[in-house]
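re: ur question from earlier - yeah i can do the single chain one, its not a big deal. heres the input i used so u can compare w yours
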Amino acid sequence: MKTELRLMDVTDATAESLVGLSNNLISNEFDTGVANTLVYNEMSDVPVSSRTELETLKENMMVLKDLSDRLSFLSKEVKYLMNLK
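and the output i got, formated as tokens:
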């Protein structure tokens, strides 16, 4: 069974545009009909807090951008190492 190694070209534009979209949604007046969700964060000063779905989306988009940046860096490093041989 032969496995191919494919390296993805990750662009920051997609992640940044999604983060911008979530920021715009939160900054607009969409909070009136959005239900709050109780969130437990063990390491926080206030372990139980209330968060809207849009705030959760914004946090998830920031994590996604961070992971995308890490994947991009790793992809470049692997390409560099493959060119050494």
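The CA atoms of residues 10 and 68 lie 7 Å apart. not sure if urs matches, ping me
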